[in-house]
Each structure stands twice: as structure tokens, then as C-alpha cells.
Write a structure and sequence with these properties.
Low-confidence stretches: none
Number of strands: 2
Helix content: 40-55%
CATH class: Alpha Beta
Length: 198
């Protein structure tokens, strides 16, 4: 994981993405990032995928692909959904039964966001900074968000948006994005389209 974290830091800087939250686990990686260019995220993920697969295959004397398909991503509305995404990411080791508290898991941004550990990888998002005027105040308020686990509806909403590459946000936000980019960004109704008969 040390190698992956180092390359993540290198490529985040090279391709100009801001990393706000992360968790590195044995079978998955979750990142909350803000790209500064349209291709930033895909370039970082492509570069990480290539270099880490080569490293892993060499280290464990194996060959072949390492990842199951393309990475999953979704656009997140900051105002109402960003801090729940922080919690979703940093609570992964707790949900997986690896630790009982997110502060116990080293390979997570919770140590920075909630406990004040320093990391040159982390760039705080404005929503995080809005939690308080001073670092200790922000960390205390951030930890308070973790007193309760995310409920099933919030988990389902985040997972659904992520797995289907949909927007995570309000209906108004989704409509604004659809209008701005002139393309559908919400899930189409399931089943065949209805045809009106004369």
C-alpha cells in the first residue's frame, strides 16, 4: 500500500487532481477527488493502474490483469452530498469488519480529516473547511459526523450513483447538469419504451 499511496500522490500532482479523502484496502480503493481538468481523473487512474499492476505482478511473480474492469466514478453535488461521501469512504474498513473505529485504520484519510495527522496527499475541500475556523474545531466537528453510521438509504444512494456512473445530488442539481452538458445524466426508465397505438 505504501507504493500505491506514493504513486497516487505523484500522479495527483502530475495530472492536477485534489485528493480530499481516500481509503486503501486489500481489494479496493476509494477516492474523493476534485479534478482541475476534464481528463484528470481518468489519467490518474490509468497511470495508477498501469504502474501498480506491473509492480504487483513483479512483486508476487504473477502475470495478467489486476483490476476487474474500469474504475467506477460519479459526479457529486458538494453542498449536501460531499461530507456523506467522506464518511462512506472512511467507514469502509469499519463496514468490512477490519476495525471498530475509522481512526484505527492507517490507510485512510480519516487520520488527517478527523485526527489532524499531516499528509502531503490531502487537500481539504471547501465543505470540510467550512466545518470550523480552526483545524482542531474542524476535526472535532468532523469526528462528530462519525458518531453514527451512514444509514441504508444513504449507502444505497451513494452506491447506486457510483455503480451506474450517475450524478449524486438533488433533482435540481441533476437538471442543471443535464442542461449544461446537453446529455442525460440520470438513469433511464427500465424496460422497453412505451409506444402509443393509434
Amino acid at each position: 500500500m505504501i507504493a500505491y499511496a506514493g504513486w497516487l500522490k505523484q500522479y495527483a500532482k502530475e495530472f492536477d487532481i485534489q485528493v480530499h479523502a481516500w481509503v486503501l484496502m486489500t481489494k479496493q480503493v476509494h477516492l474523493l477527488v476534485t479534478p482541475q481538468s476534464a481528463q484528470g481523473v481518468s489519467r490518474v487512474m490509468q497511470a495508477l493502474g498501469r504502474i501498480y499492476a506491473r509492480y504487483f505482478n513483479r512483486e508476487y511473480r504473477r502475470s495478467g490483469t489486476l483490476w476487474e474492469g474500469r474504475y467506477k466514478s460519479c459526479l457529486v453535488q458538494s453542498e449536501d452530498y460531499l461530507l456523506p461521501c467522506y464518511r462512506y469512504i472512511e467507514l469502509n474498513p469499519v463496514r468490512a469488519g477490519m476495525v471498530s473505529d475509522p481512526g484505527e485504520y492507517f490507510w485512510s484519510s480519516y487520520g488527517c480529516n478527523g485526527l489532524g495527522r499531516s499528509s502531503s496527499l490531502l487537500i481539504p475541500h471547501m465543505q470540510y473547511l467550512a466545518l470550523g475556523r480552526y483545524p482542531m474545531q474542524r476535526q472535532e466537528r468532523y469526528r462528530a459526523l462519525f458518531r453514527h453510521a451512514l444509514g441504508a438509504p444513504a449507502l444505497d444512494k451513494i452506491r447506486g450513483a457510483l455503480n451506474r456512473a450517475l450524478l449524486l445530488g438533488s433533482d435540481r442539481f441533476k437538471a442543471q447538469i443535464e442542461e449544461q452538458f446537453a446529455r442525460r445524466v440520470t438513469q433511464a426508465p427500465l424496460g422497453r419504451p412505451r409506444i402509443a397505438l393509434p
